[in-house]
Amino acid sequence: MTIKLQHLIGGESLDNGDGRTFEIHSPADDSLVGIAPRGTSAEVDRAVKTAREAFATWSRMPAPARGEILMRSGRILETRKDEIAAVMGREMGKRLEEARGDIQEAIDTAYYAATEGRRLFGRTAPSELPNKFGMTIRRPIGVAGIITAWNFPIAVPSWKIYPALVCGNTVVWKPAEEAPCSGAMFAQALYDAGLPKGVLNVIHGLGEEAGASLVAHPNVSCLSFTGGTEVGKLIASEGGKTLKHISLELGGKNPVIVLEDADIDLAVDGILWGAFGTAGQRCTATSRLIAVGNVHERLLPKLIARAKELVLGDPADPKVNVGPLISKEHRDRVHSFVEKGRSEGAVMVTGGAIPTEGPLAKGWFYPATIADNVKRGSTLALREVFGPVLSVLRAKDLDEAIEIANEVEYGLSSSIYTANVNAAFRGIERIDAGITYVNAPTIGAEAHFPFGGVKGTGNGHREGGWAPYEFFSEVKTVYIDYSGGLQRAQIDNRLDD
Length: 497
Ligand code: NAD
Description:
The chain is an alpha/beta fold and about 500 residues long. It contains 15 helices and 20 strands.
């Protein structure tokens, strides 16, 4: 059955003014999954106007009461998890247990955000003057624009939308055009939980149309974006023209360093899951294995054997380990990285070819691929592939491994496998990344810890845990002078000795 999406503006479902639409196809077999309206600046403008109107009452509702609505939406998502996961799997190719995990992340975030409504802390500090009190309070900013990627159609939007809402902002969200169907079900859960009309508005459409209009809109006060680094740079410069607060979560080229004293079987399990889970289409996917000393002699044969066992196929089949890539264009792009790697001397020790026969030929599948002999400075060593391709590099010692880990433009996730606590702490301190795991894969963020990266991965903000509440609210400083007289600060009041 084909899903017919509509925009959600002011709590009402609407088609595009000009009737234009776009189609969503399953990456597993190219079948039609849904049809969505292709929003333009007219729909974005209407949604922003509605969100501004709704801001007047939503921002004045006590934050704990806003939190209760979010709490109820989490409970609703729990009851609809299987239904939404099936749609998510169809539209973007995630295996069902991973799709359910995506929704569970949103449920966890709902519960965290709901209680944050009782904790939007300000601070007090002693005044420098007598009979005077100083404190800070947090205020909502206005209309928050949210633009998200397809690979986590609900988890990542929930990291942004829940904190934005509990802080008292209203939202206009443009989901990724590749996977908007499950996102629409997420928005519906919030309305079914009692969200007042107009507080969350969803505009479907393409990045350069609806997305760009949202970025440029003068009445959008803050913007939170997850996607590729090049688009992120564009959004920073365009959104900067209207002085928006901008939070960017962008690409990664995540390394795992394996030392000679590591538990090899544990490392193999972690590298396989990190590199080939979600077909490598995670911003935190393990993209580089940096093998230290002679560890590759024991590690690589096991890794290659296990990678060859991974089953590629229909993500709805529980026996399948690796599902499809999101589109034909993306699959061809991933393969072009592999071809470029070959031309630069890398050797594909498993995978590296587009399947051309049987059911796999109907979709955008690519096998788990390990590229050995990848040279420092080469394409496969530096560029984000965003697919099931693991580049293997070698380092003589930990210092060289950290140098290699740090020589990319990104800095999202990282991992170090070792039994040596001193080496682990050297990695924690010196790897340029927003996240470092010890003896665990590069993927698997938990909802209540900050998430984000350094260098080309972002602009210093974090999602997850307590961090986004800072981004989605502004500090007001309050001084209360109860001396009954004029007391002057910023004047040299100190008495001479
Ligand atoms: P993308 O940048 O192409 O698209 C992301 C979103 O931006 C989509 O909704 C798209 O419509 C919109 N967009 C595109 N051009 C735009 C424009 N000019 N103006 C406004 N909006 C625009 O990214 P993608 O290919 O969908 O996703 C993959 C990328 O996302 C990878 O680089 C991945 O690492 C990154 N990602 C990062 C994180 C993180 O938290 N750091 C999480 C998931 C994905």
